[in-house]
Amino acid sequence: MEELQRVGVLYTSKHAKHDMSQPILALKDISVRFNGAPALDKISFELNRGERVAIVGPNGAGKSTLFNVISGMLHPNRGRVDIYGRKPGRHICIAYVPQRSQVDWRFPVNVSDVVMMGRVGKLGLFKWPKRKDWEVAHQSLELVGMDHLSKRQIGELSGGQQQRVFIARALAQEAELMLMDEPLTGLDAQSQESIFEILDKLRRRDVTILVSTHDLNQAAERFDRLMLLNRQIIGFGQADEVFTPELLNQAYSGQMRLIETPAGAMFLGDTCCSHGER
Length: 278
Ligand code: ADP
Ligand code: MG
Fold this sequence. Notes:
Elements: H1 2-6, E1 9-10, E2 18-19, E3 25-34, E4 37-47, E5 52-56, H2 63-70, E6 78-82, E7 94-97, H3 111-117, H4 120-123, H5 131-143, H6 159-172, E8 177-181, H7 189-204, E9 208-212, H8 216-222, E10 225-230, E11 232-237, H9 239-242, H10 245-252, E12 256-261, E13 264-269
Parallel strand pairs: 5-9, 5-10, 7-8, 8-9
Antiparallel strand pairs: 1-2, 3-4, 3-6, 10-11, 12-13
Helix pairs in contact: 3-6, 5-6, 6-7
This protein binds adenosine-5'-diphosphate and magnesium ion.
Magnesium ion binds near residues 99, 181 and 274.
C-alpha cells in the first residue's frame, strides 16, 4: 500500500485504478452531436478535489448532456474524460443525482432500497448486503435527515425529500465526485437550504460537487467556481469574472437582464425550467 501511495497510484475502488497525481475530473475537447446538431462543442476543463462548482446556462445548453458524458452513460463524438487519470464508466467513485423529471417516481421501492442501490457497486450484483452495508445506508440517511422515513415509498415523498434520498444513495456509494443535475429546481427555500447544509457536510469530507442550476444569484453566492455553458464554455471562474453583462448576454442571447435592487445587482430572466418543472 505504501509503495502504491509513493508512486501515486491507489486502488481506491476495485473497478478502476486511480492515479492520485491527476485531477479528480478532467475533460479534454469534448464534443457531442445529436443527429448532426452540436449539443457540446470542444469542452475542456478540470476540477480540483473538494471544490463545489455550479454549471449555469439556458435550457438546451447541454448541462444534462455534460453530466451524461462525465458519468460514462453517453459516449462523446470527440474528446476524452478522465477521472483521476482514467476513463469513466468503471468508476464507482462517481455518483449521479439525476434531474427529477428523469426519474419514474411511481417505481415501487422504498427509501432504504433506493439508498442500498448505492451499495451495489461495492457489493457486486446478486450479493446480499452485509451488516456494514446496512450501517452505511443507515448513516447516509441519518446525514440527510431522512432515517425516520426509511420505509416510505419514494413516490410518496416531497421533492426536497426525494432529492435528499438520492444524495443519501450517493453517500452510501462513498462517492468522491457527485454530479447533481438541477437538484434545487422546484424546491422551496427551506428544502434548498437543507440541501446546502448537506453539501456543506460533504465539503468537510472532501467530496467534489458539480451542480447544474438555474439560479444565478445562488450560484454566485454558494459555489467556489461557476461555469457558464451554452454548448461551449462561455466562462469558467469566480462570479465577478464570469457573470459579466457581456458573457451573460453571450450565453443567454439577450434573455437575461441585470437589475439593481437595494440588496445589490440581480439577474433576471431564463424564466423557465426544463420539462415543465419550475
Ligand atoms: P440542458 O440540460 O442544458 O437543458 P440538454 O443536455 O438536455 O440541455 O440538451 C442539449 C441539447 O441536446 C438540446 O438541444 C436537446 O434537445 C438535445 N438532446 C439532448 N439529449 C438528446 C437525445 N438523447 N437525443 C437527441 N437530442 C438530444
Ligand atoms: Mg437538463
